Amino acid sequence: MWSSFAYHEPSTAQLLILASWVYLLNLLGWISQHLLSAQLLGQILIGIIFGTPVAGWLDQSWEEAFVAIGYVGLLLIVFEGGLSSSFANVVSLLPLSTCIALTGILLSIALSFVLIPLASFSTLHAFAAGAALSSTSLGTSLSVLNPASVGFDLRETKLGTALLSAAVMDDVVAFVLASILTTLGEDDSSSQDLIGKSVGRTIGVTIALGIVVVPLTRFVLKPSYGRLQSGIRWKEAVWGGEPLLVGLMACSFIGMVAAAGYAGTSPLYGAYIAGLACAYLNDTWKVTSHLEGLGESGHTLDQNTHNLGLRRLNTYPGNSRLGTTSSNSIQPLSSGGLLSEQHIVTPTLRSAFERYLTPLLTYLFVPIFFGSIGYCIPFVPLWQGRIIWRGIIYASLMLLGKAACGLWLLFWPKGKSQSAKGCSRDEKELGSWKGAVFLGSAMVARGEIGLLISQIAYNTPRALLTEDEFLIVNWGIILCTIIGPLSVGWIVRRFGKSVMDGGWD
């Protein structure tokens, strides 16, 4: 006998809850963005209120669904980060990014052993706490790099590339640590023999994927994309244009996420690699057509605006700036009302993503992602005196552990191309100092990765964190996730684009 899911009309209460959930996520995100330059804080707050920690208005099945939807959003955020990056910067800054990532990971784990005398943690439990706090929230890092957050695009700069690459490395290491903790928490002691195999597999797969993608992109995807961009018919066909490019990105995105996940490393790493591959194709084949009037082009202003991608800077409520600043903006009309001697950017991977996927990310996936983090926080049990003061001390140590990452910008050797022309030595040093503070602050937030690892350690058959220890660790995660974006917002308001001075633009 065939079967199907029985369709039931949602109740009025369910409809009101879901509608207000989505709307308030966006509203509180917008308010906290304008007041605190940290939209995620308002969205996390709504998640706490609507979810299990406080009101419990969201059914458990809804919460599970929103976690899955939010994680898809996180994957798309990471893909967008790779797509918006400069491939050349990623390669040239790989040693710096590695040093930044290792500094944050090792310092956080080392400082976590202070919990042994502070809160009577065992050595293994202190390591589990350090593993949870060694990660950097990719979602938060990309949010602070977003033009809507800082007012300008940092993602293609050296500073933004170093931050994003280090955060991705943190995520891969966090995936390894999560596997180790899962194995250590098993009741069967023989399963601990699998730690070396699990770690080796993750590291091997991560390196192998990075190696395989380079020749695949260079010798297969690049020629194919070049032939596509040099054609004309596909740009105006019903099946072509930007929707076709969205389909190509979807194939790349799904393929790399599946390859990374099934092979044994983090799906977020696969999403980032797919984004970088698309960024390489986009930067290699920038096709621009020259128009000299209606007689040659046959197009007016309205007919060409379909080629213009949306900027995430302009998708927040009340932040629309028609006709302003982007490389894709249209030049003024000639006296005859027609376009003359301008460059119209043909459909590209970035413009396709910005037009079709950016609005979905901004208004749906990103708010749901941060909202789902909110109801994963054990909010009520946190407010116990013995937990609060230990949690605040631990959070302070974890702030220092990640803030120290920014010190690398002060000492990293710069080539001639990185020196700021026309600046005195003092100005260059001041610029490096600003960039160091920005980078250190942006690395502080732990967010979703920290919560995931702490819950793994707490819920294993042989618990690696007791209830009090779990709450202390969550205090560290929560305070870091709040203070990090707030610090970045203050730094950007105070220094603006000068955080990139000293050769980090």
UniProtKB/TrEMBL annotation:
Residues 31-280, 353-493 form the Cation/H+ exchanger transmembrane domain. The keyword Hydrolase does not apply. Coiled coil: none annotated. Pfam families: Na_H_Exchanger. Its main location: membrane. It is found in: Membrane. Keywords: Antiport, Ion transport, Membrane, Sodium, Sodium transport, Transmembrane, Transmembrane helix, Transport. The keyword Amino-acid biosynthesis does not apply. InterPro entries: Cation/H_exchanger_TM, Na+/solute_symporter_sf. The chain crosses the membrane at residues 12-31, 38-58, 64-83, 90-118, 124-147, 159-182, 202-221, 242-263, 360-380, 392-412, 433-458, 470-492. It is a multi-pass membrane protein. This is Cation/H+ exchanger transmembrane domain-containing protein. It comes from Kwoniella shivajii. The lineage of its organism: Eukaryota, Fungi, Dikarya, Basidiomycota, Agaricomycotina.
